[in-house]
Each structure stands twice: as C-alpha cells, then as structure tokens.
C-alpha cells in the first residue's frame, strides 16, 4: 500500500524522472565520477533539469567533486530532501557518512541504501537522473539494472589495456542485463604539454574508439588528461561549470545525450 517497490514488481523509475542514465566503468580511477559530475553540470548549464545519484557506495566522491557535503533533511523521517549544487539535484551515500570512514556493509544493507536513494529521495521533475555507479560488475549494478527503468548506460575507460579489458566486462554485463549502452567515453586519452604543446599518449590513445566500433556503439567523447579537470574536481566546482575547452568538450557530450 505504501508505494514501495515489491520484489516481484517490474523495473521502476521515480515519478517525475524522465530518464535514468547510469555511468559505469570496469575499473576504478578511470574518471567515472569526474565524467558523471561534469556531464550533469553541463546538462544543467543547457537548461536541463538534472539529478545526480552517487551510487558508488564504497567510494562516494560526488560530495567532494560537487563541493557540497551535509546531511540531507528528512522532515517526515521517510522522504529525503536532496541537496543542490551547480544547478544539479544531488544525493550521495557520502552525505550520510563521515569523510574518511569506511563503508563496511553487507549486500542487503547496500541494496537498501540504493533503493532508498532512488525511491525515498524527493527528486522532483527531472529530464535526466545520472547515476554514478561503483566500478566493476557487482551487486549495485545488478540491482540498478534489474530494479530500475534505466534508459541506458555509458561506460568510461582509459585507453590502457588493463582498463579496457575490464570495460569489456562492464559492457558484457549491460548486454546480459539488457541495459542499452548509449556509448563509451575515452578519458585520459592523451596529455598536451602546457609548455611546448607536444602530445603524450600516457595511457595510449584510441583504444576506446576501437572498442566502440567493434561493439557497434557510439564513442561519445574523447577527453585528455587535464590538470584543470583534476583541480576543479578536488575544489568542488567541476570544470564543466566554467568556459574552458574542457567545459566545451563536456557541453558537446551533454548535447548528444538528450536530443
Ligand atoms: P573513478 O570514478 O573512475 O574512480 P575519478 O573520477 O574519481 O575516477 O577520477 C580519479 C582521479 O583522476 C581524480 O583525482 C580525478 O580528479 C582525476 N581525473 C579524472 N579524469 C581526469 C582527466 N581527464 N584529467 C586529469 N585528471 C583526471
């Protein structure tokens, strides 16, 4: 009666949310959260109503990257009022935890937290809810892909072989779970020396583009290693909030995402 999804119910979506797009990766550290926050901010700058759900339960970085970290209010003890930053409606398990403390939870608790963040947060009217997944192919991905009505998933990878091998596993998981893959993003694809302009392919280059063409999915963007991106993330104002070439690159990715 209470409107909470029962296990036998089909996939659900918070009412008022038009699309849910999950952003995943095979490995950690490839820039998935950086890409999630920047796409969300770029979409908001284009006038979209955007939510960002940090489902990276073991390593929530959204509070730091979006520069907001306080406990969301829950006036009735049931629904949760999300936070807002850079035009984006936000929820992260990190808001409920002390920074520096480990999440030591068993599967059912994790799933409970995920369901709560999806179902009990007052997301309001959103054109798109971006979900920053944990890396890999675990319980959170499985729950989200089967229990919520995902529009599709984006996979972020560096061009390095070890990252690509795991990215393929993530792609395989989405295929198995019948979650459409909207495209791949190659992050840290090269480094342009700020002094002399020469290009350095630190993690290689082009590997993700090749994978996208093999898989028959779009390559949504190719993003270089960029100091400003890193600093902006650490400072809580994503690079997409500004007007640098990186902000432009994210604006292009965001434009392609919602037509
Ligand atoms: P993940 O979510 O995949 O674990 P993060 O987004 O947390 O990865 O990124 C890992 C680190 O790399 C962060 O410190 C972030 O600022 C940095 N980073 C991500 N993308 C870039 C980039 N294109 N250029 C420079 N630093 C980056």
Note down, in words, how this protein is organized:
With 259 residues, the protein is α/β, with parallel strands linked by helices. It has a single domain, classed as Rossmann fold (3-Layer(aba) Sandwich). Strands 1, 2, 3, 4, 5, 6, 7, 8 and 9 form a 9-stranded mixed β-sheet that branches. The chain is globular. The mean pLDDT is 90. Adenosine-5'-diphosphate binds next to helix 1, strand 7, strand 9 and helix 7.
Task: Give the SSE layout.
Blueprint: E1 20-25, H1 32-45, E2 50-54, H2 62-66, E3 83-85, E4 88-92, H3 107-119, E5 128-132, H4 139-147, E6 152-157, H5 161-176, E7 181-192, E8 199-200, H6 207-215, E9 219-225, H7 227-235, H8 245-257
Parallel strand pairs: 1-5, 1-6, 2-4, 2-5, 6-7, 7-9
Antiparallel strand pairs: 3-4, 7-8
Helix pairs in contact: 1-8, 3-4
Bound molecules: adenosine-5'-diphosphate.
Adenosine-5'-diphosphate binds next to helix 1, strand 7, strand 9 and helix 7.
Short description:
With about 260 residues, this protein is α/β, with parallel strands linked by helices. The chain is built from 8 helices and 9 strands. About 35% of the residues lie in helices and about 20% in strands.
């Amino acid at each position: 009666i209470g409107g909470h999804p029962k296990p036998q119910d089909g996939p659900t979506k918070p009412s008022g949310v038009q699309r849910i797009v999950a952003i995943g990766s095979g490995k950690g550290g490839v820039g998935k959260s950086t890409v999630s926050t920047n796409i969300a901010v770029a979409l908001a700058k284009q006038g979209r109503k955007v939510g960002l759900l940090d489902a990276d339960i073991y390593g929530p970085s959204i509070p730091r990257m979006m520069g907001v970290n306080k406990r969301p209010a829950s006036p009735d003890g049931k629904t949760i009022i999300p936070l807002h930053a850079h035009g984006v409606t936000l929820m992260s398990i990190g808001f409920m935890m002390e920074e520096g403390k480990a999440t030591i939870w068993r599967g059912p608790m994790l799933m409970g937290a995920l369901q709560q963040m999806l179902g009990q947060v007052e997301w309001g009217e959103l054109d798109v809810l971006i979900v920053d997944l944990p890396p890999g192919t675990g319980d959170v991905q499985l729950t989200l892909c089967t229990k919520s009505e995902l529009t599709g998933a984006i996979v972020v990878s560096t061009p390095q072989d070890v990252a690509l091998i795991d990215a393929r596993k993530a792609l395989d998981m989405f295929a198995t779970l019948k979650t459409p893959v909207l495209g791949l993003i190659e992050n840290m694809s090269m480094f342009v020396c700020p002094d002399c302009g020469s290009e350095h392919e630190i993690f290689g280059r082009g590997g993700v583009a090749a994978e996208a063409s093999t898989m028959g999915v779009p390559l949504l963007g190719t993003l270089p290693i960029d100091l400003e991106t890193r600093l902006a993330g650490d400072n809580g104002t994503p690079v997409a909030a500004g007007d640098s070439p990186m902000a432009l690159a994210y604006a292009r990715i965001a434009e392609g995402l919602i037509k």
